[in-house]
Design goal:
single chain; 348 residues; alpha+beta; OB fold (Dihydrolipoamide Acetyltransferase, E2P); elongated; membrane; ABC_transporter-like_CS
Length: 348
């Protein structure tokens, strides 16, 4: 195993009776990395997290932690802690006792416990909350207590299973920033599970896109968004226009009856491909100046932009524009070579 890899899943398969939830999954997580498992409900991301934590056994494959196989190591003996969406705080204990709980299990001296709890509460901006009851805290504060309780044990790996799911949008965005800051300060590896694309793009060093128990793509947020490997990733991460095309040669593609320069290469001559163009990369022009022409069919205001749908020949396109355009208007559109991303067609 490479020196900077903390944990590795090798050929992991997990079934529930005849239902295969994860099939032959391979994944490694590096030290100090913030990695996010992203996908729709039922894609296998939480099962993968539970396998790492030791809450689920595997049917085949190995879990390697710091060069040691840990398949049979129980959860409490792994150097791994988990924060859940339901924070599972002890309601009969105050904040101090909640955070100190794991340290008491380890039978640490009281003086050391006091120092560690104080430092951890300061880190999560709950200094002075030691004697407060859990029910007196807001959702965001309860989540900070759950994070402090997990981190005070100094795990080498922290697993977070949709921990922001119960928070309102504003608090959720604030906690995204806080979590990333805490992770960077402590240098602990985080594996985060979410179905929220924006959350994954905002927080992660690496994103693992999953669907139907299989990994679809692994990459940086920029790679995943700008260079999707297949139709599922292109559709799941943000919005996309996906158009059938023909790759004429390196750096040249034909779609909607016209040739376009692009930045992709390595395809067969005249290979049938799928062309991905993000809505925000399309510029609306006068009809006469457009590389392609069409008619606006709907306009919806989304706050920071208008979402415009237009029929370009026989295809409905989505366009994001800061200026409003009238329904029924004939328009032209312009796209640059950098705005065009080519994907191989999935085998039927």
């Amino acid at each position: 195993m490479e020196k900077d890899i903390l944990i590795e899943l090798r050929n992991i398969t997990k079934k529930y009776e005849e239902n295969v939830v994860i099939e032959n999954l391979n994944l490694h997580v590096r030290r100090n990395e913030f990695i996010t498992l992203l996908g729709p409900s039922g894609c296998g991301k939480t099962t993968t997290l539970n396998i790492i934590a030791g809450f689920e056994n595997v049917d085949s494959g190995n879990i390697i932690f710091e060069d040691n196989k840990i398949n049979d190591v129980p959860p409490h003996k792994r150097q791994i802690n988990t924060v859940f969406q339901k924070y599972a705080l002890f309601t009969h204990m105050n904040i101090y006792e909640n955070v100190a709980f794991g340290l008491r299990i380890k039978k640490l001296p009281e003086k050391e416990i006091k120092e560690k709890v104080k430092n951890m509460l300061k880190l999560v901006d709950l200094d002075g909350f030691e004697k407060r009851a859990t029910h007196s805290l807001s959702g965001g504060q309860q989540q900070r207590v759950a994070i402090a309780r997990a981190l005070v044990n100094e795990p080498k790996l922290l697993l977070l299973d949709e921990p922001l799911g119960a928070l309102d949008l504003k608090l959720r965005k604030e906690m995204q920033v806080e979590l990333k800051k805490i992770q960077k300060q402590l240098g602990i590896t985080f594996v985060f599970v979410t179905h929220d694309q924006e959350e994954a793009l905002t927080m992660s060093d690496t994103i693992v896109v999953m669907n139907k128990g299989a990994i679809q793509q692994i990459g940086t947020p920029e790679d995943i968004y700008n260079e999707p490997k297949n139709r599922f990733v292109a559709n799941f991460i943000g919005e996309s226009n996906i158009i059938n095309g023909i790759m004429l040669e390196d750096f040249k593609v034909n779609f909607e009856g016209k040739d376009f320069q692009c930045v992709d290469k390595g395809f067969n001559k005249d290979e049938a491909v799928e062309v991905v163009i993000r809505p925000e990369d399309i510029k609306i022009t006068d009809e006469a100046e457009g590389m392609l022409k069409g008619k606006v069919t709907s306009v919806v205001f989304r706050g920071v932009h208008y979402e415009i749908k237009a029929m370009i020949y026989n295809t409905e396109w989505i366009i994001h524009n800061t200026m409003q355009v009238s329904v029924g208007k004939n328009i032209g559109i312009k796209i640059t070579p950098d705005d065009i991303h080519i994907m191989r067609k999935a085998s039927e």
